[in-house]
Records
---
Amino acid sequence: KMKVAVLTSGGDSAGMNAVVRAVVKTAIIKGCETWIVREGYEGLVRGNSEGHRHTNSVAEKGHTSPRVKGTESQETEGFVHNLRFGDGELLKDGTGDHPGGRTLKGRYIVRVGWDDVRGWFSEGGTLIGTARSVAFRTREGRLTGAHNMIKEGIDALVVCGGDGSLTGADVFRAEWPGLVNELHNEGKITDEQATKHAHLKIVGLVGSIDNDMSMTDLTIGAPTALHRICESIDNINSTAYSHSRAFVLEVMGRHCGWLALMAAVSCGADFVFIPENPPDADKWADEMCTMIQSHRDIGKRKTIVIVAEGALDSKLQPIRAEQVKDILSERLGLDTRVTTLGHTQRGGRPCAFDRILPTLQGIEAVEALLDATPDTPSYMIGVRENKITRVPLMEAVKMTREVAQAISEKDFEKAMSLRDPEFRE
Ligand code: F6P
């Protein structure tokens, strides 16, 4: 019986809970045992303190199968209540007690059942917590993580996160045999455990609002973040119109301009700056002013300029919202305000597509784990032309790094061709 654990890592994104739900439910249907790891890789490193292993979730009382009529009240006593009502202290450092008496103290790797993930479709963020773990970046941290997994008997891992988190997954799988050897040689695991855990099955799902991963068309959370941005721009539009003002909006996306570009298209922005298409450092201010003035000349009462947080000019100098504002005020005399949308873009309920995509990909992730052999590569589950795909995780991670490198070398054609292989063809 495969024991599958799922974790969310890096910046949260809408749809991560739907991933956990889909993985847990699919794995149960396929006859696996299901676990969650709290706080991303950090939870793997912290593990379960002695005395807190294999305790008190509904799953451990045997209710692991789909809900059967008549068992609801028993099942709703599930672990989910720990997560829901105990967030805050419980999820931050695992030291709090659940008001109802249950506790997650000292437990980061927790067995879960069908009802534990009920209703998780529509919840924003990630209920099992996430972190950008420093400890897991070290070999020592990964060694402890491997030990904690083996202690609980977990042999398959689903990681949902951005490119940093999936790089971690790739490194973990590559190092795994060495880690197991070391634990075995040090006498920390038995012969039987060393044999049983000789190979790690691992699969990645891309959860990130940035949509910056190569070899997939869309990342989980990006559509919701885009939707949030559109709603904000709609709000700003009405006040901008009233005062005939200009607004410069800074949006997230790290080194990727997808959110900014798609928001500009969705909202009819006057001008947009993205990292992938840096304007001429000596000309962009003039070009922007000419464009915006021409819009004003034909009667437009409001101006919207979108700046991706990673936007650069041709000399690779950052383009900042404040700088754009000063140009619009000084050269065009526009009453201009800056709005940095910040983390409102990342939070909140997932839109429909960020429920559908994680569900389809979560199912595929479990199937990929069940198909995995020591010789198959670890997969990243992607989506290409509306079809769910499996691509080698290592390749996708490598390509994403190469895109960042190409952008930093101003080789934008190469960057675009790596991000979108069809562009290359
Ligand atoms: O990668 C997701 C993201 O939201 C980026 O768009 C942004 O640059 C970054 O994370 C913000 O990180 P933090 O949550 O640490 O402020």
---
Amino acid sequence: MQPALDLLKSVFGFDAFRPGQAEIIEAILNEEDVLAIMPTGGGKSLCYQLPALRREGMTLVVSPLIALMRDQVEALRRLGVEAGALTSANDPEETERVFDAIDRGVLKLLYLAPERLGSAAPLIRRTGVSLLAVDEAHCVSQWGHDFRPDYLKIGALRAALGGPQTAAFTATADEETRAEIAAKLFAAPPRVFLRGFDRPNIHLAFAAKDGPRRQLLDFVTARKGRSGIVYASSRNKTEVLAGALRHAGLPALPYHAGLDPETRRDHQERFQLEDGVVMCATIAFGMGVDKPDIRYVVHADLPKSMESYYQEIGRAGRDGAPAETLTLYGLDDIRLQRMRIDESPAPNDRKRADHARLNALLALAEAPRCRRQILLGYFGEQSEPCGNCDLCDRPPALFDGTEAAQMALSAIYRTEERYGQDHIIAVLRGEATEKATRAGHDQLAVFGKGADKAKGWWRGVMRQIYALGLVRIDAERHGAWRLTDAARPVLRGEERIEIREDTLRAKAKRADRAV
Ligand code: ADP
Ligand code: ZN
């Protein structure tokens, strides 16, 4: 279930697929026609970009938004992928460059604006298309909110191209629209992917490390007889933990890429066949594991990103029966992960994006309310409080953080949503750094308004407003903090917000820059 993981890493720089991506990509690589419904922000474009790299010839992408196409083409070119767009906004050189790449047969992805479908048809017919990808496919729906008459030409183009494999994507999930898309874009019914990301049978829980060995032993011992995975951040640690659990009378085995193949196979087989084995593993364990009745997943250390977290906990409870998770996290983990990112040879843009993905996970760790809402929200899915996470079970003590949040939000707003956390906090605390004075931020009304609170206290507030969805961190813009629509009512004083007390008190001394 991990098609083209190598490309995901080497070209796109991601370490895990997002929910749904792996299945959709696998189907596309198997040459199936696909209609995929994914929430906005869920990562649709990767689902056709990655297969495009895997196969011969050109992938044609029809997309309605010129600005979006341009962004994608630029991003792909930065990754070293031959991509181009033909839109009404092209300048002549750009069009020349695209034509030339098509002529030389090197263009992998051609983005085409709907209004160009007719005029570009002869050229495309000559070149041939190995995959037709239709973004925002609901635009073909005459009754939909976003109807684009030009989208109706896609069917004809498809026929003229000899009916190439087609993959259509949309975030609109209602049944009528789906049926209309299927009828208008495909010759035969496509395979439909419509799966919410939620795995409601998996209980979510986080705990700050506080005697982590004990915490792990308690958790696993209480579940003796059930199969589970304990993920640890290093090979050595998997062996140490397996030893400690065995010492406590539990059938635990280590698993990591450094073990010889025979041992690895043996351990995997025992986990698969025997009841109640605890696998202490690095993330090398999981890809090929197909055990439906894994009852729990413990992260002995914080995972790398929201995506990795989701993927790893998702190995529990595939049979649909209740399953549990526990993620332990501590200051050292955060430091380690940050160091790994900083010291990797990746370019700076990618590092910033990696930091942002880690930050999202930290915000989940210190969330003030339902974890599932935050997790699903990260992948673009709205939901109600789940009743199946530790925070729904036992809501944490909260205080009225409206004023603090307003200050932070207004500092973000007044500095034009262009800065990261450190600078925003410096402004709040009235630190006349060079950056602040140069930008004139020391003249802002909000400058120094929060000087009576420590840096760590403000970091806590920042994590919380992030967890509440009032801001997002723009990975594409150097990790700048930006306001979301949800921030407005708070800024206008129409909505009060509550902040978790423990995250500000306990960690006020922390020296990390957690979000
Ligand atoms: P949409 O579904 O709205 O078209 P995009 O394709 O634009 O979403 O993806 C949204 C964001 O998610 C992009 O910034 C993209 O780089 C990021 N993304 C996509 N797939 C992954 C992944 N597997 N891991 C991490 N980030 C990803
Ligand atoms: Zn919940």
---
Amino acid sequence: MADLTGKKLLLIIGGGIAAYKVLELIRRLKERGASVRAVMTGAAQRFVTPLSVGALTSERVFTDLFDLNDEREIGHIRLSREADLVVVAPATADLMAKMASGLCNDLASTALMATDKPVLVAPAMNPKMWQHPATARNVRQLKADGIYFVGPEAGEMAESGEAGIGRMAEPAAILAAIEEHLAAIEGKAATQPLKGRRAIVTSGPTHEPIDPVRYIANRSSGKQGQAIAAALAAAGASVTLVTGPVALAAPAGVTTIAVETAEEMLSHVVAALPADIAVMAAAVADWRVAKPAGRKLKKTGKTPPALKLTPNPDILAAVATHANRPELVIGFAAETNDLVKNAKAKLAAKGCDWIIANDVSATSGVAGGVMGADRNRVHLVVAAGADPWPEMRKAEVAARLVARIAEHFGDSRPRRRDEAEAHPS
Ligand code: PMT
């Protein structure tokens, strides 16, 4: 028998005849040491009583979204997020339709919308309802949304003479699915040291318009910045990547915002605050054309047009001095000479915590160069000194940097920002 001590489940009981089987499921979960909180829909209460469910869970049963005491004491947000796993059993056609379309007009559907935890559904309905194109559509949508399924199974229905696919999975099968998902969640937590942290990454070049067809840019490909965004996401952070124009596909699991100019990049970075971590890998143009021409500049006469430049905002410095400054602000330094000396000067001038310094000169020794290519050789520069890293792939630089970031945040329990603000360490 699996030990589920310390595991928290939120069980959402829908209104179907199979609701009686849920009592057996609760009994088995409790035997294994899990704590079970139950939410019952109005219809569920016609099949089993909150009294029986409460007696088995040894917890108060939640039924009403507008119970002010509940809102004060616990609230549907906490209710849905304090669980390790949310289980919907029986998941009726109606409840699944609400989930698929984002409707929330009772406590069950609202908790399902508010949760940030994995959701496992055990559908139960008449075979005709299960086969209905609307249900098939909803199942596809729910699977695409990352909802897990157990069952339904084929067999006799409660209604006499009806048989087919639609019976809710037996409690033993639901229990096995719950155990499997809880084990997967535990495994994932061990490899996600930045779970609960928010990160902002800038990447790529900026394009500063000269006229509607020409711009000032640089050779950054976005490879290093995107590798960092992907590595942070793989470590469990919730990542916003603000990227200049690049030819790369947006990394999976990252909120990617595409911009052109430094000014656009700044406004999206500031909008993404607050965050715990900022990594500014973008090669932001230091200057832009003061007044880009509204029409394409023409070759008139012999003298080429003079471009009057004006400084761009410094995004890294703006983040490092912002009222909502992330706990860890990391800049890059792209240098062609005096790498560590210049990086240290940037660290102080921009007010960041660490600088990743890379030699972008033609003599860097990195085959193919650093900008645009796949490899990099960097120094991690902090106020106290510089740590030279060997040449490696940009993805490896990203993984090593993220390991250092995770080390910085230590092995303390990942904290949500609201918790951190309430109880600063
Ligand atoms: O994109 P790739 O082809 O993979 O190449 C990666 C890279 C070489 C572009 C990357 O590793 C890198 O070094 N990025 C920073 C490039 C740069 O512009 O460095 P900088 O020394 O000019 O700027 C210092 C820091 O200030 C950087 O963190 C930069 O993002 C930031 N900055 C600079 C100017 C500005 N107006 N705003 C900024 O935020």
---
Amino acid sequence: AGLPAPGSFRTPPQLSFEFFPPRTEALEQQLWSCIRRLEPLRPSFVSVTYGAGGSTQARTHDTVARLARDTALVPAAHLTCVGASRGAVDDVARQYWDCGVRHIVALRGDPQEKNGPFQPHPDGYNSAAELVAGLKRVADFEISVAAYPETHPEASSPQADLDNLKRKLDAGAVRAITQLFFDADTFLRFLDRCLAAGITAPVVPGIMPVSRFAPAKRFAQSCGVGFPDWLETLFGGTEEDADTRNMLGAVVAAEQVRLLQANGVDEFHFYTLNRPDLVYAIARILGVRPDQAAG
Ligand code: FAD
């Protein structure tokens, strides 16, 4: 049997959206128009990334605090272990708690210099699992962590990486959000392995709708994510043709999420890149409408 008609699933899924903190006034406006466009879809939470090496600490904090203050959205702050002592990280977490933020996406983080090895701060948290345990000592945060359908590049084996995911959940995280991937099967196989390893917490697919192929490929390669040949062929030659690229990006992401949804996946996390249009359309394809979103 084929897939149900687009947008026709009876129970709309839960969505969450990821933004990055803006660097300039113009980007700030772009971010807030993106947030306002996606807000009526009533996501279960929205998260704000933390730049490599903690480089966006103030901007992440300001964006998350404004989300808490000026919107009805549930904000989640990404927080990493890089370049900071445990005390400093705990202080940042306490500031979040004090301004009403209850959800943290806890990550080890990557060093500021890409490709260098991760060097923990001498008094810092050494891993995301340690960070989760530390945050739970600060306050009773809801904590999400990262998972890697294609295995984290530094892991000694896929099983070791899965053991690490389990440690993060055992330390108090309640949800895993995956690294991006391009083949739905990659995620579904990973989900099977999680279940076989006794992981019962939700493992939420991280979806990145692609409209600009070359940067997406570079980004995927920099985090050890396979970029399939078919995608390269599909987008090849459309560099100067934004309309076609957007249509292709929408179709690829729509097929990906529809296949996942048909296999029982009912939560999706979108890497929005602060651009709302593809995400908005794909949400509708998943059956989420602004007036009747799951809440
Ligand atoms: P960890 O879970 O600590 O794992 C790191 C590596 O160490 C893995 O290979 C793991 O298997 C291994 N490992 C950990 N503990 C052990 C152990 N005891 N024994 C053996 N091996 C071990 N980065 C940012 O800088 N800012 C962000 O905002 C950000 N947001 C992200 C959001 C999502 C949804 C995802 C998927 C990633 C994000 N990242 C972000 C990237 C992330 O910081 C990197 O992928 C980083 O390299 C690993 O972080 P982690 O939390 O998965 O680390």
